[in-house]
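From the methods appendix. Each design record in this collection lists the discretized structure first, followed by the designed amino acid sequence. Records were kept in a plain field format so they could be parsed without special tools. The example shown here is representative of the layout used throughout.

RECORD:
C-ALPHA CELLS (584 positions):
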C-alpha cells in the first residue's frame, strides 16, 4: 500500500495532557483501481492509535476539510466534505476523505485545512464575568486564552505553514497566544450592559471565533510503479473436482494493472517498454525427460533454472498448435523470458507475448498459462521405460515452479518484480504425446493422473520507480543453472540466542566474472521457520545480501551468515536462488 503523508504534531501547553495531530495522506482503495485522499485532525496519535485520547479531549471538537486538485481537470470534492465547507466534525477525530480514480500522466495534490472548536460548557458556568454571558466554551487545556483588557481580547490566529510529508511542525504554547492558563472562554464577552428586571442585557459585546485555524497540510500524489502493480496478479487454483484431467493440470494467472491503466500506461509509469513473465523451475526430480536444445543432458533442479532454457527444449522442436502447425520450428528463443517478445525464426503472425495480451499493449491484461506433464513422476506412464532412463521418480517427487511478473527494460532485459505465484504439479501424463513443462496445449486425455496446485501468491514488490533518493539503479539477473553453486554448513543451536546458526556459501561455477551485489533468496522456506537476519523479502520469501562482495571471479566463493528461529525443530527445507543486482 502506498502512503504519502503530511503530518504535524501540534503540541499543547506544557501543562496540558493532550496533543493534536493533523495529517494528509493518500492510500490505495481496496479495489486497487482508486486512490483515497484523507485529511484528519485528531488527538489520536496515528503512530500509536491504540493509545486512548486524554479525557480533556472531550472538551474539543475538531474539523478537517480536504480537496484534491489534479494537474488537469476540475477540483475533486466528496459528499463527506463538500466544496465551501470546513468539512466533517467529530470527537475525538475528524476525518474527511475524497475517493478518485487516477488518470495516466496526471498528478494530484491534496490540500487540507484543520480547525478546532470548543465544546459548549453547561449553562450557568461562570466565564470570568458574572451575569453577562450567553454560554461558554470549555478550554481546560488553555489552548487559547483571552485578555479582556486588550483592544481585542482574543489572541491572534497563529499562522501555520503549508507543508509536505517531509516537514514536521512542533507548535508551542506561545504560538497559540495568551498565558496558556486553563480556563473557560465565553462565547460572548460583554463590554457594557445593564440588568433589565433582573435579566442581564449586553449593549456592547465581543464574540469568540466560531472555529480556530490550526494548520494547513498538503501532499502530492503521482503514480509510482508499486502503486500500479501491487496486488495486480491474480491466480486461481484448478477446481477441486475438475471436469477433466486437462483442467486439473492447467495453471492460469492474469496481470491487470491497477487504476484501470493499460499495459502500455503501466509500463510507462514503471520505466519499462512492456511486461512479461519469468518462470523458474525450482524442483525437477530425476529421472528427467527434459533436455535443452543442444544440451544433451537431462535437466534437474535444484539448481533452479529458467523455463524455458536458452534455445528451448527438444520436445518443443516438434510441438504443434491446435491447427497442426509447428510452434517452434527452429527452437524456442524466449529466454530469459517465458513468452518470447520477438518472433522466433520461421514464426509468422503474433509474437508469443502478443498472443497473451488479448487487447494488445493498449489493453489491460497480460495472461499466463502453463500445463506441465512429466510421465517420469511416480506412477507415470513413462516409469521404467527408456524415456525415463528405465526408472522413475520417488513417491515424493513433484515439479515446483515460481512464476513472476517481469518488466521489459529499454535494453530488452527482464527485471523480476517479485509479484507472482509459487505452484507445483504432480501431473504425470503427456501433451501431444510428449513430456512438457512450458506448455499451452491440452493434456492428452487419459494419459495420467495428478493436478497442479498454487501454494502462494505474492502481491508485494520491492521495485522503486521513480527511484527514491539514494537508491541506485541496478540491473537484476537470476544466476540459474550452472552459474552459481550454493552450499550450506551444518547448523549449530545457540542456547543463548535460541537460534540455529550457520552459513551459506555461493561459488562462481562459470568461466566468467560475475558482478554483484549478490542476493540469496530462500525460496519455499517453511512458514513456521524464520530467517531472523534477513535483509528483506522478495517474492514472498526472505533473502540475504552477501556482504562486502562486489564481484566473483571464476571459482571464487563468498559466505554469508544465517540465523534461523525454528521453534518446532523442523528439518530446514528451502531452495536457494541467487541473483546479482538489487531488488529495489
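DESIGN:
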Amino acid at each position: 500500500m502506498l502512503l504519502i503523508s503530511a503530518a504535524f504534531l501540534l503540541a499543547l501547553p506544557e501543562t496540558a495532557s493532550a496533543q493534536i495531530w493533523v495529517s494528509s495522506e493518500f492510500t490505495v482503495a481496496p479495489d486497487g483501481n482508486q486512490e483515497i485522499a484523507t485529511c484528519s485532525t485528531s488527538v489520536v496519535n496515528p503512530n500509536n492509535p491504540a493509545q486512548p485520547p486524554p479525557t480533556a479531549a472531550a472538551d474539543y471538537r475538531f474539523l478537517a476539510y480536504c480537496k484534491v486538485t489534479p494537474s488537469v481537470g476540475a477540483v475533486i470534492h466528496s459528499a463527506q466534505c463538500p466544496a465551501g465547507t470546513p468539512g466533517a466534525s467529530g470527537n475525538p477525530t475528524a476525518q474527511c476523505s475524497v475517493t478518485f480514480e487516477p488518470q495516466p500522466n496526471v498528478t494530484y495534490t491534496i490540500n487540507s485545512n484543520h480547525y478546532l472548536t470548543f465544546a459548549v460548557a453547561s449553562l450557568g458556568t461562570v466565564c470570568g464575568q458574572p451575569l453577562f454571558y450567553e454560554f461558554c466554551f470549555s478550554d481546560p487545556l488553555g489552548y487559547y486564552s483571552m485578555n479582556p483588557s486588550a483592544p481585542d481580547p482574543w489572541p491572534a490566529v497563529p499562522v501555520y505553514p503549508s507543508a509536505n510529508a517531509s516537514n514536521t511542525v512542533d507548535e508551542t504554547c506561545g504560538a497559540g497566544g495568551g498565558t496558556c492558563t486553563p480556563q473557560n472562554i465565553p462565547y460572548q464577552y460583554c463590554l457594557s450592559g445593564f440588568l433589565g428586571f433582573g435579566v442581564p442585557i449586553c449593549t456592547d459585546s465581543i464574540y469568540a471565533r466560531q472555529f480556530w485555524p490550526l494548520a494547513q497540510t498538503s501532499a502530492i500524489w503521482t503514480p509510482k510503479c508499486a502503486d500500479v502493480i501491487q496486488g495486480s496478479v491474480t491466480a486461481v487454483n484448478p477446481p477441486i473436482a475438475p471436469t477433466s484431467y486437462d483442467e486439473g493440470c492447467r495453471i492460469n494467472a492474469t496481470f491487470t494493472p491497477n487504476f484501470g491503466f493499460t499495459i502500455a500506461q503501466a509500463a510507462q509509469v514503471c520505466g519499462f517498454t512492456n511486461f512479461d513473465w519469468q518462470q523458474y523451475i525450482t524442483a525437477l526430480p530425476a529421472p528427467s525427460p527434459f533436455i535443452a536444445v543442444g544440451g544433451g543432458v537431462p535437466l534437474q533442479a535444484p539448481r533452479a533454472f529458467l523455463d524455458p532454457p536458452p534455445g528451448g527444449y527438444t520436445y518443443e522442436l516438434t510441438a504443434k498448435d491446435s491447427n497442426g502447425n509447428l510452434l517452434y520450428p527452429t527452437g524456442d528463443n524466449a529466454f530469459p523470458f517465458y513468452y518470447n517478445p520477438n518472433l522466433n525464426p520461421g514464426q509468422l503472425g503474433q509474437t508469443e507475448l502478443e498472443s497473451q495480451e488479448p487487447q494488445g499493449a493498449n489493453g489491460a491484461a497480460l495472461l499466463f498459462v502453463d500445463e506441465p506433464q512429466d510421465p517420469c513422476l511416480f506412477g507415470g506412464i513413462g516409469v521404467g521405460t527408456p524415456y525415463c532412463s528405465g526408472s522413475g521418480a520417488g513417491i515424493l517427487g513433484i515439479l515446483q515452479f515460481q512464476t513472476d511478473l517481469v518488466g521489459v527494460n529499454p535494453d530488452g532485459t527482464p527485471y523480476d518484480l517479485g509479484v507472482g505465484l509459487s505452484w507445483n504439479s504432480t501431473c504425470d501424463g503427456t501433451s501431444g504425446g510428449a513430456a512438457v513443462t512450458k506448455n499451452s496445449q491440452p493434456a492428452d486425455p487419459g494419459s495420467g493422473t495428478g493436478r497442479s496446485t498454487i501454494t502462494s501468491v505474492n502481491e508485494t514488490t520491492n521495485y522503486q520507480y521513480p527511484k527514491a533518493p539514494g537508491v541506485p539503479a541496478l540491473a537484476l539477473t537470476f544466476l540459474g543453472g550452472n552459474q552459481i553453486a550454493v552450499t550450506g554448513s551444518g547448523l549449530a543451536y545457540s542456547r543463548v540466542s535460541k537460534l540455529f546458526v550457520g552459513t551459506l556459501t555461493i561459488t562462481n561455477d562459470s568461466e566468467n566474472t560475475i558482478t554483484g551485489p549478490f542476493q540469496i533468496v530462500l525460496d519455499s522456506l517453511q512458514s513456521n521457520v524464520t530467517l531472523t537476519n534477513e535483509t528483506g523479502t522478495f517474492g514472498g520469501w526472505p533473502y540475504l545480501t552477501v556482504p562486502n562482495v562486489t564481484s566473483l571471479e571464476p571459482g571464487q566463493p563468498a559466505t554469508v551468515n544465517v540465523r534461523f528461529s525454528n521453534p518446532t525443530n523442523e528439518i530446514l527445507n528451502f531452495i536457494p536462488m541467487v541473483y546479482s543486482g538489487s531488488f529495489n
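APPENDIX NOTE: Confidence is low (pLDDT under 50) at residues 1-18, 122-135, 157-184.
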